[in-house]
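Input record, target 12 of the design panel.
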């Protein structure tokens, strides 16, 4: 360890452009030192701790959106109440009967698996660490900023409002991305309406603030790990967006930090996970929460998850966001300074995952 040159190992891993899957394909039986996470090997990753997470009966809310637009005012009010309670208490919930067809979700997962499992010389054409690129494949966007690397590879694609041309999207998952993006964008608009109503605002309030103007899709591929007790799929973090809609397969591994313990988010067939991001906590002046979450490494897989971030971070967009004025009063003064989305995400990315929450940077 005295002779361990972390910077050299990071560069060597980056230069392969083969990601974590490249390591697995090479037949390694021990993970490289850059992935070893000391904090989890010492305490929080103990067998006892993992069992307490996986065996408890606590679960994030599952909200049924069926009949949201045809079930009358009572049905919609009920859904709004459930969403509001979930956002205050958890910052996470799952939705079923959300309007995204099952075959579209299944094809999206298959398409992402196809991208990551194609020959590396094809994937390498998309390899980049430039956060402003519209289409980007890499392993660990924060490879050089974070204290440890995570056991995953990622394809990120900007899908709105200024998407790449169809030819610029990877052929292995091009049609799947276009179809899924269309459906998840529609669901995202519905979620923005529900969130606005849950805050006591008019239905279109967040949409009129251009919160739904942009989204991009980040697709993670977690290969099986030979030493899953020594690393993580994703370090604990919050999302630096308005909210995220997550499609995950049935393998599991996603956890939320709730009431001082890690709780598994068990996959529900046909469901999508929705978690609030930092910008929604900022807009709501802490009425809604952006919860910390992480992904465990596993010795099975690959696990595939597809996160749609609703954000305008890749737009030349100077709009300032702060606590919504209609929510403020003498008893509820603003808790945060205003920021542009791009400035906030730039600060977030500069620190790497696992650092102190970036919202503290804006706290008044």
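The sequence produced for target 12 reads:
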């Amino acid at each position: 360890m005295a002779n361990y040159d972390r910077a050299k190992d990071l560069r060597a891993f980056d230069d392969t452009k083969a990601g974590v899957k490249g390591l697995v394909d090479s037949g390694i039986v021990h993970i490289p030192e850059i992935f070893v996470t000391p904090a989890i090997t010492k305490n929080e990753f103990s067998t006892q701790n993992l069992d307490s997470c996986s065996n408890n009966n606590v679960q994030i809310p599952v909200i049924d959106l069926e009949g949201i637009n045809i079930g009358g005012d009572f049905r919609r009010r009920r859904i709004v109440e459930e969403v509001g309670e979930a956002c205050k208490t958890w910052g996470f919930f799952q939705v079923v009967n959300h309007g995204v067809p099952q075959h579209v979700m299944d094809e999206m997962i298959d398409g992402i698996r196809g991208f990551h499992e194609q020959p590396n010389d094809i994937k390498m054409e998309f390899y980049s660490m430039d956060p402003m690129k519209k289409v980007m494949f890499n392993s660990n966007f924060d490879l050089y900023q974070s204290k440890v690397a995570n056991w995953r590879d990622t394809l990120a694609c900007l899908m709105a409002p200024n998407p790449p041309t169809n030819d610029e999207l990877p052929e292995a998952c091009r049609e799947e991305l276009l179809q899924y993006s269309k459906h998840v964008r529609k669901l995202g608009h519905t979620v923005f309406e529900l969130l606005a109503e849950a805050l006591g605002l008019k239905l279109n309030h967040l949409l009129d603030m251009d919160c739904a103007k942009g989204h991009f899709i980040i697709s993670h591929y977690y290969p099986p790990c030979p030493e899953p007790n020594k690393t993580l799929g994703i370090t604990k973090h919050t999302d630096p967006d308005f909210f995220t809609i997550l499609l995950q397969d049935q393998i599991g591994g996603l956890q939320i930090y709730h009431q001082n313990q890690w709780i598994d988010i068990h996959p529900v067939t046909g469901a999508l996970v929705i978690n609030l991001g930092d910008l929604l906590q900022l807009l709501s002046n802490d009425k809604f929460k952006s919860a910390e979450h992480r992904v465990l490494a596993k010795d099975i897989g690959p696990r595939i998850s597809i996160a749609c971030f609703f954000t305008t971070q890749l737009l030349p967009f100077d709009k300032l966001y702060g606590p919504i004025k209609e929510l403020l009063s003498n008893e509820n003064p603003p808790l945060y300074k205003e920021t542009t989305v791009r400035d906030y995400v730039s600060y977030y990315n500069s620190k790497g995952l696992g650092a102190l929450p970036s919202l503290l940077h804006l706290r008044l």
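The longest helix spans residues 174-198.
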